[in-house]
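INTERNAL AUDIT FORM
Audit reference: QA-55
Scope: verify that the stored structure record matches its stored sequence.
Auditor: D.O.
Record contents follow.
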Amino acid sequence: MKKILLVTVMCVSVLCGYAQRQVERIVEGNSFVWYKIRENGLVGVGNTGGKMLIEAKYDSIYVDSLWISGTREYYFRVRTNGMEGIANKDGNILFLPNKFEQVTYHWAGWDKNAASCYFCVVKDGFMGIYDSKGNEVFAPNRYKWVDTKNAIRGDVSKAKFFRFKENDYIGICDKEGNVILPADKYNDVRVETNAEGTEIRYYRVWKGKGKDRFAGICDVYGIEIIPPTKYQYNVFRSGNEEDGFYYIVEKDGFEGICDELGNEIIPPTKYAYIFRSGNKEDGFYYRIGKNDCHGVIDESGKEIVFPNKYNSVCRHGDKEEGFYYGVKKDGYEGACNMQGVEVVPCKYKTLIYNEGTFKYKNSSGNYVPLYIDINGNSIPKDNNQTSSSSTTSSSSTSNQSSSSSSGSGYVPRMIYTGVDMGTGGGIGTGNVSTGTTTTIQTEKRCHLCAGTGICTTCNGRGQMINSYTGQYQDCPNCHAPLAGKCHSCGGTGRK
């Protein structure tokens, strides 16, 4: 009888033990699967293979996430005794739940660098910031809300500027909490710094909310250059110190241009996008877009190449040979002169301007002259003006020259080494001295930007719309110090 009673007690104990273990399968974002395991009133985490990732010793656990380089990263927020901590998706505790009432995980970098991740903590109602190693960056003892995501780039431990909120207004302070830009005027502020994040260059500011939200610019002293009263959604600076800066402004879905002093020079009433190209030495021009077509206007706003035909337009050439606009339509290249008149129709896969004439690349990979000069005038056919494959110089030299010049109207820069031109010689004349080795090296055009030097991700703006948030963010490919330039070639157009 005693044996039967003992067995019965053991069975009940085992059944009660199993009854105390509860397992809940949870799917986050249709991709991340985890199991909430409750034992004896406490919670842990298990994975799909049955392994315990987090021991069941917390009062509660739930999943949160953040975006890193366009990828959603999941993590766990664990709570015990009213304190919160953080564990990554593999169950490793990143921040112990023993000090703060609330802890959230954030990211402020351009790649998946751990130094770009940080923690926002709350203690006694005040918010602070800790770096990825758990070191205090901003003490939680002064402001109810503080953030560094849009005040730095990269390593949070080196952050010098922080956003804080008071009475629904945003300001900027330093690491010790000293106010740099008061929180008494703007509903949002972004601080723009040098590449190292050590010096403030200017502020982007916003007033209002929703449809009544307007953007502006303040200088380093907080003085308004462009008041946030006219332009909607966004205003941002582009250009560089050598050629000067300018501002792209938006209103009612159109973009315009203000100069460095904030004076409007091209109103935002006509073009879906606009940005400046060229340089101070060769002159500036503005590339524009309208109804999925591209064009060009000059600095006065006069349309040179109308935005009603071409898929892309970009200026090519130099002061010595002259300039022209390379145009592209439906995958084929052509050219317009500087008055915007089409001089070569868009019917060639590759078109360049070289030796005083436009040339197209034939199926054999050789460049064939069209005998049309940069202004669209016909020029006499010259026996010496032949395709690059027909010169009496070595075929390897010719092929090297031609193969490096693919794409939209880019003229490669030639570097000659060890050249003896002989008597009366010239490139393409066939009079190179046969007793001297000639080497022609060609700087290849950048494969990414097709020789324009402009970031293809943001079209040279330095910013783009985050498809998940609908808000503008700095371009991940051309962030400082490139600022709108191609990240592959650094803005040179060459590789």
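Auditor finding: record pair retrieved intact. Helices lie at 2-20, 395-403.
Action required: none
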